[in-house]
Amino acid sequence: MEAKTKDLWVFIETNEDGSPKKVGLELLNPGRMMADKQGGKLVAVVIGDNVAESVEQAGIYGADQVIVVEGPEYKLYTTDAYVKALYYLTEKYGPTTIMIGATNNGRDMGPRFSSRVGTGLTADCTSLDIDEETGNVAWTRPAFGGNLMATIMCPDHRPQCGTVRPGVFKKPEAGENKAEVIKEEFHVAPEDIRTVLLEVIKEAAGEIVDLEGADIIVSGGRGVGGPDGFAPLKELADLLGGVVGASRAAVDSGWIAHSHQVGQTGKTVGPKVYIACGISGAIQHVAGMSSSDCIIAINKDEDASIFNIADYGIVGDLFEVVPALTAEIKKLKA
Q1: Dihedral angle of Cα 274, 143, 21, 161, to the nearest 10 degrees
Q2: Which residues on adjacent β-strands are paired with residue 263?
Q3: Are 271 and 311 in contact (CB under 8 A)?
Q4: 121-125 β-sheet, strand order
Q5: Looking at the whole model, is its pTM more than 0.90?
Q6: Three-state secondary-structure class, residue 228
Q7: 3-state helix, strand, coil in the chain (%, to 5)
Q8: What is the block-wise mean pLDDT of the chain (334 residues), using blocks of 10 residues?
């Protein structure tokens, strides 16, 4: 498909109530930089039902233009309806780049859409840049099981497409909403939607952990020694109003559920405070939490690589340091 503009699109995925999912707003941040570099507009694309809040938020967080497709058939995500709508918009407006959040729905829609338009898709990206001369996006993602980072370009086909992990980028600063809103009438007949959602199971295995939305994360690695080693970490996390994270080593050992995993093969997070307990600092883990505002590392090994990125480091036994820290916070709260 031929690009008709230099515009960069960000797909704003919506919740069932029409509010925006966080990752779409996060992508407006790198989207602004990339759109400015290539001399195009930053366009938010909103598909859903009763999406006024998402449209408003897209403008507040920096979109120059918001294109909206609204209807009851879009209330719940289906591959057929969403891909047809996005394909229609792409064919009409011809953007040069489309970014989609690597959520469950985004990971489903991205490959189907890119195949339909005859272009490539770089999935699960953790870093983005753009070549000003060519307009080629440099999509960077983990490869070979997270053991190296690959940068991929799509020079011959448009639009360039990629899915980007939630939590990799911070939301832009909120500002005045100056976005132009374009409402497109595009509807999909029920017989053209081949799947029917029968039931939503929100908790399939273990507790639900919102790592990506947490402001404070207390994570444990191989140094916690076993499942019981997460107990003091959970106490500290609960006291701070945060959640418990984990390294791949701890998850692979069966000490904690995969839903807690931070890193290239887990969640990418950017909390205000990240406390790493007994985590050595392997590159696969660091790639998933290095954008945290403040990193506090606790480790017995003074040469652990986690200290290279930590804002504050404590060399000591986590089973002595964490309870002491918890006790002091309790005193301050009292």
Answers
A1: 150
A2: none
A3: no
A4: 121-125, 160-164, 97-101, 8-12, 42-48, 65-70, 180-184
A5: no
A6: helix
A7: 35, 25, 40
A8: 90 92 94 93 95 95 95 92 96 96 93 94 91 89 74 92 89 90 93 86 64 91 95 95 95 93 86 95 87 93 94 95 95 87
What token pair was written down for 178? 């100056």
Left, alpha or beta for 219 (phi > 0: left; psi -120 to 50: alpha)? Answer: beta
Number of CB atoms found within 10 A of residue 191's CB: 6
3: nearest Cα among 41, 44, 37, 47? 41
- CA gap 297, 45 in Å, rounded: 40
The count of other CB atoms within 10 Å of the CB of residue 253 is 15
Q: Give the chain's length.
A: 334
Q: Is 162 left (phi over 0), alpha (psi -120 to 50) or beta?
A: beta
Cα 32 from Cα 175, distance rounded (Å): 13
Say which residue the tokens 């064919």 belong to: 91
Six-digit token pair at 334? 């009292």
